C-alpha cells in the first residue's frame, strides 16, 4: 500500500472530548509523517470534496484542540443508507479519496458511523481501492456495542452528577419557604446512561437525586407522585432527574407535548417542564426545572480525566491500526479491573459494533426503578474520575482554540447531495 | 456593650459563594473569641428560636464550607413587612436575641435583607437592646445599590459566559445539517446583569452570543426574527441568550404562557422554550434550547476567584465592623481601578442600600439592543476572573461539606409565624 494521506471525519452529535480524539489523531499521524485532511462537516464534506488541510494548523493549535469542546471541523447528521440505495454516494466517496490519495479513513462517531465505516470499507474493496477504514468511537449516549464505554460519556456523566449535587444543595437551603421539588432533564433518548450517572451524586438514601426517571421504565404517574410526596414529607424536598426519553406504557414519549405556548406556537418537547407542571398541579408544591441541553455535552470545563484519556487513546490507536494495515476495525476500551480502575485499547471488528446497541443491564436499575444499584455505581464511577480542566485566559474564560480550517484545493467536479 | 454572641442569617436566593461569606464570618469571629450561632432557614429560624451552634463544627468543616454552594444553614423567602404591620415579629426577634445574649446580627442577603436589617436595627434601639446589626451583601442578580457588585454575581456570570461559549461551539459544529439556532434562558427577572454577562463570551461580531434579549428592552418580535434570519444567513447559525424577565411592550412577561402541556396541566414559564418555538415556527429552522435554572447559581465548580474573594472579604469585614461597634451598615465593594482591577471594602449605611435597586446603565447596552458595550465589558470582566475550583474527591465529584447543624437549646416559648 502506498503511504497516502489520512482523512479524519467527525459524525453525529459532538462531545466535550471529540476534539481530544482529533488532536490525538493529528499528533500521532504527524509523528509518523502522515498528512491529515479533515472532512468539513463530516461525511457531507467528504462527498462535496470539501476537505481541510490540518497541516496548516500550528502545533500549539493542535495542543489547544485537545481541550476544546464541539467538533472543530464540523460534524453532521447525515446517514448514508444501504449500499443499494446510496451506491452513488459510496462511489463518489471513493472517488474523492482516490483523487487525494487518501489511504486511511478515520470515522469518528457513534452507531451509525460504525455502520457507515463498514460499508465504505466494503465498497473500497469492491472497487479495488486500497483503503484502511477505521471507526473511532464517540458518543455521549454510551450505547456503542463491544466497547466498555464511549469517549464523551464520562464527561457528560461528570457534568450531570456535579450539577445535580450542586443544584440540590441550593434547593435544600430554600425548601422551608420556597421550592420543594427540582426537576432536571438530561439527554439520552433510548438508553438511560446519562440519567444513571446522576445517581453518582447520591450518597445516602435521603440524598439527591431522590428519583431518576429512566427511559427503560414506562412512566407510572401515580407511583411517581406518591414517591415525590413521600420524599418531601421525609426529607423536606425532592430532586428528580428525568431522561428525555421517558415514555408512557404505550410507547409515546412523555415529551410529546403538542400543546401551544404563549405565541400560539407548538411547544417544543421538554419532559422536564412537563414533569414539573405535573408535580405543581397535582401536589400543589413549588417546583423549579432545568434543561441543560447542549450545555451538558459541551461542558469541557468539567471534563473527566478518564474520559479525556480514553478519547486521546482511541485517536492515537486508530492511527496505529491504520498504519499497521488494519481495516474494518474500531479501537475500543476494554476494562480489565474496576478497583483499581484499569483499561486498555483493543481492536474490535466493525461488523461486531455496527447495528448493535449497548443497553443498560437490568441489574443496574434499582428494584423500585428510581435509582441505580451498586453494580451500576461500580461501572460508572471510574468514568467520571479526575479533572481535565482546560487552561483559562486572563478574561476568566476557558482558552478554546479556533482552527484556521483552510480548504484543500478541489480536483473533481462538484457533486450535489 | 457586653461581648455577646453573633447571629448569622442567610436570606433569599442562595449563591455559589454565600457559604464562603459564612465561612469568613465564622472564622473571623472565632479568631476574636466570639461565639457564632446561625439561624436555621434565615429569619424564620431566628423567629422560631431555631438556632444552630456553629461551635460544634470542626475547623476543617468550616474550611470546606468556604467552597460549598447552597446555603449551609438554610435560607428563606420570608419578608418582614413594615414595623407597623409586623411589629410583633420584630419584637419577638429582639426577644430571641436577648434570650441568647446575641449582640451582633449579620444578615446576609439582597435588597429585602438590607431593608429588614435596617428595621431590626431601629427596633433594637427603640427597645433599648444594644445590637450591632450589619447587612452582608449577596445576590446573583447584582442589583444592590452602593456596592460596585454583589458577591454571587461574578460566579453566575462566569458560568453563563462559559456555558454560552461551550454550547455555541457545539452548535457551530452541527449547524450544516442540524440545529441552526440555540436559545439559552438565564436568570434576572428585573435587571439584565446575568444576560449581559453572556456577552463576555463574544469576541468578534460573528461570535456568539449573537443576540441577547434583555429585560430592559421590550421584545420586538419582527425585529428579533429578522436578526436571527440575518445571523443564520451570515454565520450559518445563531446563539440567543434570553433573560427570564423579557417582556412585551405592554409589560407582560413573555414567559407568561398560560398554555397546557401533555398532561393538560398549565405550562410553567420558560421564556427560553417560548422563544425557541417562535423561531422554529416562523423561520422553520431547527432549534434547541437550554434553561440551566438553579444550575447557574449553584455552580461552585466554576466559581470566579474575584467573586470568591469578594464573598470572603464582606464576611470578614462584617465581623470587624460589628466588633468595632458599627451598626446599621453593610460592607460594600468599591472598585478603585478597572485595569489592573483593584477594589476595597467600605462601610455603607443601610439607609442608602435599602429599597434602592441598581439598574444596568444605559450605556452598557449596545445601540441595537442585542449586546453589550465596551463599557459593560470593562465593568464585568474583572468579576469573572480567576478560577476558585473546589477540591474533588476520588469519586470524581466536588468535595462539598455537610454541616452537623446542631440546635442551640431553646429558652423561650414557641412562636408561630
Automatic annotation (TrEMBL), chains A, B:
UniProt xrefs under Pfam families: PFK
Q: Which part of the chain is the Phosphofructokinase domain?
A: 7-320
Positions binding diphosphate in this chain are 13
Please list the cofactors this protein needs.
Mg(2+)
Q: What class of enzyme is it?
A: transferase
**Which reaction(s) does its UniProt entry say it catalyses?**
beta-D-fructose 6-phosphate + diphosphate = beta-D-fructose 1,6-bisphosphate + phosphate + H(+)
Q: Which residues bind Mg(2+)?
A: 111
What is the regulatory mechanism acting on its activity?
A: Non-allosteric.
EC number(s) per UniProt? Answer: 2.7.1.90
Gene Ontology MF annotations? 6-phosphofructokinase activity; diphosphate-fructose-6-phosphate 1-phosphotransferase activity; metal ion binding
Entry keywords, A to Z:
Cytoplasm, Glycolysis, Kinase, Magnesium, Metal-binding, Transferase
> Domain of life here?
Bacteria
Question: Alphabetically, which GO biological process terms does the record hold?
Answer: fructose 6-phosphate metabolic process
Task: Please classify the protein's predominant subcellular localization into one broad category.
Answer: cytoplasm
- What is the active site of this protein? 141 (proton acceptor)
- UniProt pathway: Carbohydrate degradation; glycolysis; D-glyceraldehyde 3-phosphate and glycerone phosphate from D-glucose: step 3/4
Give binding positions for substrate: 139-141, 187-189, 244, 294-297
**PANTHER family in the record:** ATP-DEPENDENT 6-PHOSPHOFRUCTOKINASE 1 (PTHR45770)
Q: Tell me which family the UniProt entry assigns to this protein.
A: Belongs to the phosphofructokinase type A (PFKA) family. PPi-dependent PFK group II subfamily. Clade 'B2' sub-subfamily.
Q: Per its database record, what is this protein's job? A: Catalyzes the phosphorylation of D-fructose 6-phosphate, the first committing step of glycolysis. Uses inorganic phosphate (PPi) as phosphoryl donor instead of ATP like common ATP-dependent phosphofructokinases (ATP-PFKs), which renders the reaction reversible, and can thus function both in glycolysis and gluconeogenesis. Consistently, PPi-PFK can replace the enzymes of both the forward (ATP-PFK) and reverse (fructose-bisphosphatase (FBPase)) reactions.
Recorded protein name is Pyrophosphate--fructose 6-phosphate 1-phosphotransferase
Organism encoding this protein: Pseudomarimonas arenosa
What broad taxonomic lineage does this protein's source fall under? Bacteria, Pseudomonadati, Pseudomonadota, Gammaproteobacteria, Lysobacterales
